[in-house]
Every structure is written in structure tokens, then in C-alpha cells.
Design brief:
The protein contains 13 helices and two strands. It is globular, with a radius of gyration of 19 Å. The protein has one domain. The relative contact order is 0.17. By secondary structure, it is mostly helical. One of its GO terms (cellular component) is plasma membrane.
């Protein structure tokens, strides 16, 4: 009970901090903080989606950037067709991601370990090169959005603060959904399948069906991140689904703590803040970032969240 309260307090503190950030940016006279924070929220959604299958299902997907890209391209394609509503963009992104995850997941989940990692990477690269070949949408160069998605028929998201709060609301909603999933019977079976799939099958559960369902849910959540990131950048290109983006998402989850949904959000926040701050110091910021990641992982196998839990112990 105490652990549950601690997690709730940590979530309340983190999301309250996000809610107050635009006011802090106004006081500091630095509107760029809201732009950076919106990008952080978008990647936090993607990291949360990945942790759902990585931390609770033991599925190390190295192709989750594909779903981010599908969400981003849903904005570009529908906007070009004259459909600008955010709800329509989200539904299209989710539908595309569900279909892609259903097909690729059904194949990928027949493998294990390094083979699963490589096949998810292969499918993501197939998606990457497919969108590179779409010359109507700029091919490898991508396409600039004429405007952000509309909300309730109005261009409300053109205001950076409105876009920020909508993205934050979506993140909180998906976080609560992910928590509900992991605490449900479905989540317990998924965790059991990660620990011992043979035993779960022996007591009447089909690990494959539960893992595939979780894989599809995770892909759908990641596509939402793509929709919001496309609106934040105002630009969509195949770079959204490049393999290194998938690697960055894995790093965010590891940094925050695998199997800790709030840790995934914190990991995305810390990773992108470090990228901004270290980038100001040197063009070789990735070297420093790597050293920091190694130190954190050596100090705690559960990432940053593990460090805080260790500190809270008497």
C-alpha cells in the first residue's frame, strides 16, 4: 500500500510539474521551453508504449519507431486530402498502427530473443523504405505541413501552449490506461507469460494471444505519439521511423527503469533534457550521454526510478 501511494505521489508530482511548466516559461520569458517540453511529452508517449511490452511482456522491440512514423504520416496524408481534424488523424494513425502491428506482431512473436529484436527492426526498416519511396510526400526529404491539426473545427493547436496541454492530457490518459492494463488480469497474464510461458500455457492461458494483443495496443499508443510530434515539428519525414529512433526509445525506457511506466515518462524527459543541455556544451554530446547512461545503469539495474526507490528505503 505504501509503495502504491509513493508511486501515485510521484506521478502526481511529475505531471503537476508538466502542467506548471508553461507558466514557468512565461515568467522566464522563454517560450522555447514549451516547444521542447511538447517534444518531450510526445516521446514520453512513445516510451510509455514501448515499456508496456518491454517491461511487462519481455518483448524487446527495436522497431517501435515505425508506429511513430505511421502516426506522423497519417497527419500529412489526411491533411493533404483536406481532412484536418485531430480526432481523424488520431483514428487513422491508430488504425494504421493496429494493422501493421497485427501483421508484423503475429510473425515476430513466433521468434524469441535476438531473433525477435532483429525481425522487429527488419519490419520497421521495411516501413521506413516504403515511405522513402512515396515521392508524392517528399520521399526521403519529407513534407512540410501547411498547418497543424484542427480541434473542434478550429485551429486551436496553432497556439503552442494549447498543443502542449492537449499532448499532456493525452499522455496522462494513456498513462492511466497503461496502469489499468498492467494491474488487470490481462496484465498479470502478460507478466506471467514473460516469466514462464510454458507454465502459463499449462494452466490454460495462451501466451501468444496475450502478447500479440499487448503488441498491438503498444503500437497504437506509439502512433498517437507520432501524430502529436508531427504537429509539434510541422514536418513529417521517414526519419521519424529510422532505426536510431527505436534505439532512442529503448534507451529512454532503460534510463527510466524497465517495467516502470512512470519511469518511462521520466526516462524520456531526462534523455531529451540531457540531449538539449549537453548539445550546448559540445557537438560530441552523445559521448557524454553514453557515459551518464552507463553510470546510471551500473548504479541501478532499474534506472533512475531504482535510484529513487533505493534512496527511500530506511
Amino acid at each position: 500500500m505504501s509503495r502504491l501511494m509513493t508511486r501515485r505521489n510521484a506521478a502526481l508530482l511529475l505531471f503537476s510539474g508538466f502542467a506548471l511548466l508553461p507558466f514557468v516559461a512565461t515568467m522566464l520569458g522563454d517560450s522555447y521551453l514549451v516547444v521542447i517540453a511538447t517534444r518531450i511529452l510526445g516521446f514520453a508517449i512513445a516510451a510509455l508504449a514501448l515499456d508496456l511490452i518491454l517491461g511487462y511482456g519481455g518483448m524487446v522491440s527495436f522497431g517501435h519507431a515505425a508506429y511513430v512514423g505511421i502516426g506522423a504520416y497519417s497527419v500529412a496524408i489526411l491533411s493533404r486530402a483536406g481532412i484536418t481534424d485531430l480526432g481523424a488523424h488520431l483514428l487513422a494513425g491508430i488504425a494504421g498502427a493496429v494493422l501493421f502491428a497485427l501483421v508484423t506482431g503475429a510473425i515476430s512473436l513466433r521468434t524469441r530473443g535476438i531473433y525477435f529484436i532483429m525481425i522487429t527492426l527488419a519490419f520497421a526498416q521495411m516501413a521506413f523504405f516504403f515511405f522513402v519511396s512515396l515521392s508524392a510526400y517528399g520521399g526521403d526529404d519529407g513534407v512540410t505541413l501547411r498547418a497543424r491539426s484542427t480541434l473542434l473545427g478550429r485551429p486551436l493547436l496553432e497556439d503552442d501552449r494549447t498543443l502542449y496541454y492537449v499532448t499532456l492530457a493525452i499522455l496522462v490518459a494513456l498513462y492511466l490506461l497503461a496502469v489499468a492494463i498492467t494491474r488487470s488480469r490481462f496484465g498479470r497474464v502478460l507478466t506471467g507469460a514473460r516469466e514462464n510461458p510454458v507454465r502459463m500455457q499449462a494452466i490454460g492461458f495462451s501466451p501468444f494471444r496475450y502478447q500479440l494483443t499487448a503488441f498491438v495496443i503498444s503500437g497504437a499508443m506509439a502512433s498517437v505519439a507520432g501524430v502529436m510530434l508531427a504537429n509539434q515539428t510541422g514536418f513529417v519525414s521517414p526519419a521519424f521511423m529510422n532505426w536510431h529512433v527505436s534505439g532512442e526509445l529503448v534507451v529512454m525506457v532503460v534510463l527510466g527503469g524497465i517495467g516502470n511506466l512512470l519511469g518511462a515518462v521520466a526516462g524520456a524527459t531526462i534523455a531529451l533534457l540531457l540531449e538539449e543541455w549537453l548539445g550546448l556544451l559540445t557537438e560530441h554530446w552523445r559521448l557524454l550521454f553514453g557515459l551518464i547512461l552507463v553510470v546510471i545503469v551500473l548504479a541501478s539495474r532499474d534506472g533512475v526510478s531504482g535510484l529513487f526507490r533505493r534512496r527511500d528505503r530506511p
